[in-house]
Amino acid sequence: MTNGMAAPAVATSGLVKTYRQGSVEVRALDGIDLELGAGEFTVLAGPSGSGKTTLLNLIGALARPTSGRVLIAGQDLGTMSAAELARLRREQIGFVFQAYNLLPVLSALENAELVLELQGVTRGECRRRAEAMLRSVGLGQLFGRRPSELSGGQQQRVAVARAIAAARTLVLADEPTANLDSKSAESLLDVMVELNREHALTFLFSSHDPRVVARARRVIHLEDGRIVSDERARP
């Protein structure tokens, strides 16, 4: 809190990430300054290699920057230990990956409950929240099915339900529609827009899918690791 105002859901300052490829230094991000308010529905757009996924990984505390700062709800990730970062990821951030990352031996319901269990939520509350989220993404009749018994679109909906059930601050989605057909992608986006409105969670996507970009209320374009435009939809 500053001057009575809530901290932004996400803030980055001077964010730089470099990698070495042999003797060559690659600058994946080159000085990113960004602020997302609570409840925003934002897409990071840009071509492959523009830095979208790298930026998501740094915001999600999955990697550390070469320089610069990342703050989640006012918490400076650079000052946190590995254990504290793990707790932040577990308790504040929901992740939706392109590859779904569901455990094949668990049912849809058990996959949706998993992070809640890691958070220490009671068994009954785990079940209640996971069931509610699966119903909200249209999977109320498929609690007992394992990933191999679900379509790609249904598996991605389970991943979304898991992320929403567990997240308290932020949902990060890396190319969430990349493996979906047009109908499944549009349906998933409908669900995510509605969940964003209902739960006031901040959503940040990386995508070059025009269907995702069209739904965003804010589109941040990256090229060569830099923000080249930041556009907000008209109310």
In words, what does this structure look like?
The protein is of the alpha/beta class and 235 residues long. The chain has a single domain (38-63, 82-232), classed as Rossmann fold (3-Layer(aba) Sandwich). It contains seven helices and ten strands. The strands form two sheets. It has a six-stranded mixed beta sheet. The protein has a four-stranded antiparallel beta sheet with strand order 2-1-4-5, covered by helices on one side. Helix 5 packs parallel to helix 6 (182-199). The longest helix has 18 residues, at 182-199. The model has no long low-confidence stretch (mean pLDDT 87).
Write a compact overview of the structure shown.
With 235 residues, the protein is of the alpha/beta class. Helix content is 35%, strand content 28%.
Features:
single chain; alpha/beta; Rossmann fold; six-stranded mixed sheet; four-stranded antiparallel sheet; 7 helices
- Cα end-to-end separation: 27 Å
Determine the number of helices (DSSP H or I, runs of at least 4 residues): 7
- Tell me, briefly, the overall form: globular
CATH class: Alpha Beta
CATH topology: Rossmann fold
What proportion strand? 25-35%
CATH superfamily: P-loop containing nucleotide triphosphate hydrolases
The helical percent reads: 25-40%
